[in-house]
Amino acid sequence: MIKKFITFIFILIANFVLSQDQEATIFFNDGSSIYGFGSINKNNILFRASLDSKPDSWSYDMVKGITFLGFESTVKFEYVSLGEFSKPEPQLLEVVEEGNVTLYARVSKIFQSFAINSNGFNHPNNQFVTNNFVSYRSGIENVAEEIYVKRVNEKHPTSLNSSFYKKAAKYFSDCEVINKKIGIGEFSKNKILELVQYYNDICAE
Predict the structure, then answer these.
(1) So what's the pLDDT on residue 166?
(2) What's the average pLDDT block by block, 10 residues per block, for the chain (205 residues)?
(3) Distance in angstroms (rounded) separating the CA atoms of residues 60 and 65
(4) Hey, CA dihedral for 72, 13, 106, 48, is it positive or negative?
(5) Structural domain boundaries in the chain
(6) Cβ 141 vs Cβ 131: under 8 Å
(7) Would you indicate the residue range of the signal peptide (predicted)?
(8) Cα–chain-centroid distance for residue 90?
(9) Most exposed: 24, 90, 117, 146, by fewest CB within 10 Å?
(10) Are 91 and 106 in contact, with CB atoms under 8 Å apart?
């Protein structure tokens, strides 16, 4: 009974979050764009020109991406091809930093369910990765995070989701200073944004 109730709450929370529409501009593959209200559901963009209209679902076949408009900043998502051996369809990723090397991220909120043990105390039970994407810059805790980097002349981005130090050292091997900082742990996965910014400002030709 308790497990069913927890599952119901999880679904309710996830659906509530996903139903929230934010001011946004959607960009189409033909170069046109429309201002309206949007949200992300899995790998699709839900968009409508006004809050009174019904949202339409868009995907990579017609849309390049979407930029959400906030009070102090914008959050940009684009469809990116990760390569045929990874995921065959382009994936919607946040564009965290642009330059000679572009940093992409996909951050999904994790919902932690709890169960009551024999002593009457709550303890962690199951974790669910929701379809709700949050901004990499939001600083929200308890998330599932995917990180990618891509140079302008590269067809597909490079994943830094596992063996970070080894992969990062190889990818940024053309910058001796960065490799030294990686080697002493100054640049870790948690500081990938600072690493990419440093590379674009100091190391990129």
Answers:
(1) 93
(2) 41 39 93 95 92 93 93 86 78 95 86 48 40 68 82 93 92 93 90 95 84
(3) 8
(4) negative
(5) 2-161, 163-205
(6) no
(7) 1-19
(8) 13
(9) 117
(10) yes
Distance CA 66, CA 76 (A): 6
DSSP secondary structure of 148-177: EEEETT-SSPEE-SSSHHHHHHHHTTT-HH
The number of helices, as runs of H, and strands, as runs of E, in the chain is: 4, 11
Report whether 39 contacts 62 (CB < 8 A): no
- How do residues 71-130 score in pLDDT, each as one tens digit? 567 899 999 999 866 667 999 999 999 999 999 999 876 554 444 555 554 444 443 333
User: Residue 120: CA atoms inside 13 Å, Cβ hemisphere, count?
Assistant: 0
Distance CA 32, CA 90 (A): 20
Secondary element (H or E) of residue 166:
helix 164-171
How far is CA 29 from each of CA 78, 136, 175, rounded to the nearest angstrom? 11, 25, 35
